[in-house]
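User: New here, any thoughts?
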Amino acid sequence: MSSTRTASGRANGRNGTWRNWGGNVSARPAREVAPASVEELADAVRAAAGEGLRVKAVGTGHSFTSIAATDGLLIRPQLLTGIRDIDRDAMTVTVEAGTPLKRLNLALAREGLSLTNMGDIVEQTVSGATSTGTHGTGRESASIAAQIRGLEMVTADGSVLTCSERENPEVFAAARIGLGALGVVTAITFAVEPLFLLTAREEPMPFERVLADFDELWTENEHFEFYWFPHTGNTNTKRNNRSAGPEQPVGRLQGWFEDEFLSNGAFQAANWIGRAAPGTIPAIARFSSKALSARTYTDAPHKVFTSPRRVRFVEMEYAVPREAVVETLRELKAMVDRSRLRISFPVEVRTAPADDITLSTASGRDSAYIAVHMFRGTPYQTYFTAAERIFTAHEGRPHWGKVHTRDAEYLSRVYPRFGEFTALRDRLDPDRLFLNDYLRRVLGP
């Protein structure tokens, strides 16, 4: 272990304290390491086990849960980055676990390749994003993890395990969204396709019209999502569909004004005002919901699916059965309308098809995602508790990387294959080297 880069004291806080992006989770690991190779990582895992230290890996800290928090050894994969291999016959790319999604998307575009679907935030590492079930929106195309074709990880005994549909298939079924409970992911092989174009159509639409036409909007578009602004009857909708071209990107000045000035700068200022004077929030929400005008543009996927998100927040997101989304949203709106809550962030709604990943939020059922947010530093517990009560009444499944209060008893009821995952965990990590408080709650001891 002598060659392992030690990162003690370089946590993103003072005195060795690690904090997540949202600022709602912190931890004080006993030690941090940044391995420069799979061998160094395996050595670090074996050494930690010998010292009786728990082990967790953390990427950029974009999870709002304590899924990566530890008082033991914190592994940072910042030196495990870059593309290992591109196989144009198989149409796959193998990438090191610490590679940020943003860098992967740009590197693939330079090679004339692309992932099929993406989330809207690209700061996460590929391993962090997939391990927590990060997703975008899609009628047929699912989460980032559903695009995985192979995985490499270091298990609790320090051995390197590879898996795919053909090799260790029972591990592959679970480890694509492994929650950091099965091992430390070191490399991921994704399916890719030739670079394509998407036409995005963004436009305001009344909340009631979106709900009335939801099935039609979902059916007619490859990727549909919308944002509802609490305290208003307004939404902003986005429809992304493949295009034969030509490329017609958003103009540089228009893009700066709408995506940076309005969606980040002005929105940040509005949230500062709302936090200081909550009574102003309904008026701000009415203004914000009408600030962005309709626009249509055609560009590469990573420029259409993703957006800069510079205003910090805390988030809860649940996946409900797709057929229950309209009723769930009506209940959420009714709850906000009759409450004294003041909500400055829009509610985001997306969809995903059923997949075959053991603990995917879309495992075995077509799903719709409803995400609620609060500005960083604003009390969120009352809002999130009320929203969670609605989501769980519809057998909602919480996003593994976003705030929720569910435990193993509840989760075992809404995940039919929950027992498969815990049995595999017993096999791969019988001594619970990768345990922390979050995993103890959601998976059981």
